Amino acid sequence: MNDIFTSLTEKKNKLDALRPLSADQLMAINDWLDIEYTYTSNWLEGNTLSRQETALILEKGITIEGKSLREHLEATNHLKAIHFIRSIVSKGHQFIAENTVRDIHRIILAGINDTWAGNYRQVQVFILGSSVEPPQASDVPIRMMRLIEWLQGIQGEHPVKIASEFHFRFVEIHPFMDGNGRTARLLSNLILLGHGYPMMIIKTNERKIYMDAIEKGTLTHDLTDFYTVLSQAVERSLDAFIALAHGKSVTQFYIDREQGEGKKTVFIGKIAKLAGVPIPTIRHYMAIGLIKADSQSTGGFLLFNIRTIDTLRRIKTLQEEKRLSLEEIKQELKK
Question: How far apart are CA 25 and CA 183, in angstroms?
Answer without folding.
Answer: 27
